[in-house]
Amino acid sequence: MALRRAVSEFTSHPLNQIAARLRGKPDYFLGRHNGRETHNVIAACHKEGLNLTQKVIGTSGYLLVNEVRNSCLLIEDDELARQVHESAIQHGLPVRLTES
Given 1, 18, 29, 61, which is the most exposed site by the fewest CB atoms within 10 A? Predict the structure, then answer.
């Protein structure tokens, strides 16, 4: 089954479970992916002849930037980002909202 080869979520499931999960559905959400991971999922699906629709979803979050070392850390976990944001404000650090 092409989907089983292309999508890691289905690799270890028996075909009857995959078929039951997909039966009657005109489409299936493969999850949120970023950058390279998105490219890999799309390439694997196309290699297996599967049609795929990519939907770009804008997100916002906090990007920790060390301006001295010119490096950054993106926090994708909402709760952790909120905690870091509050802590940064309490300690007088500048906070900027980023959107993508």
Answer: 29
pTM listed for this prediction: 0.48
Is-contact 61 96, C-beta < 8 A?
A: no
Residues 43, 12 within the same domain: yes
Same domain for 67 and 43? Answer: no
d(CA 49, CA 70): 42
Task: Give pLDDT tens digits along the chain (100 positions).
Answer: 677 778 888 888 888 888 888 888 888 888 777 777 888 888 888 888 888 888 877 666 667 788 888 888 878 788 888 888 888 889 888 877 766 6
Residue 85 tokens, joined: 């944001």
**Residues 76, 37 contacting (CB under 8 angstroms):** no
